[in-house]
Amino acid sequence: MAEKQICWLKATVRGPGGHGAMVHRGGTVARLGHFLSDLDRKRMPVHVTPVVREMVEAIAAELPRHQAVIMRSLLKPRLTDRALKLLGARAAQFEPMLRNTVNVTIVRGGAKINVVPSEIELELDGRALPGFSPEQLVAELHDLAGNDIDVEVVRHDPGPSAPDLGLFDTLAGVIRELDPEGIPVPLLQIGVTDGRFFSQAGVQTYGFLPMRLPEEFDFSKLIHAADERIPVAALEFGAEAVWRSVQRFH
Question: What is the pTM of this model?
Fold first, then answer.
């Protein structure tokens, strides 16, 4: 129903360079280390967007009471981190839906082994929640890691801030026809799709590609992996679901 926004950043660490044979403390490389450590240890604030609230409430409504309490705790910022810890491995799929995120993906610095660099560049894959601006993401990054590193936005692909759920029930009906035990829920996509381009024309995208997967099949770990795959039966299920949804609009 919605997706996070690409907000790619470039961060620059500057400081005194010098000869590699000398003792250097507190320079660019040390500051880089602190910055990377801050990103690893600290967490950005929790934000509960409308789609995620609907998703979590829909899941909680189908769970036993104890598990439902944990799920609903995700929606209370003061309890979110505790609830994520209780979810164990499953937390990995929920946490990016509740925070703006930044990950360092490329580091460039230094040209000679005997010279300490005076400047190090980082490329960061930032993803902003719906309704948040690049400026808000950068401000949260500075709050987390300090203001002594220059940060600039190199690309921002915005999406719609208020999704239209008008066709959700129609698509959910197709799911229920093919899988009577299935429980359709809205989803915030933590990656991006071509929906971000359609949103610029005011088009609501419904990421509708159902797959009925075996319970032991860990699909999320296979995305973009060398052996990325789905079972043939899941492909057939999805093709039939898409075909039925098209027929609804014939």
Answer: 0.90
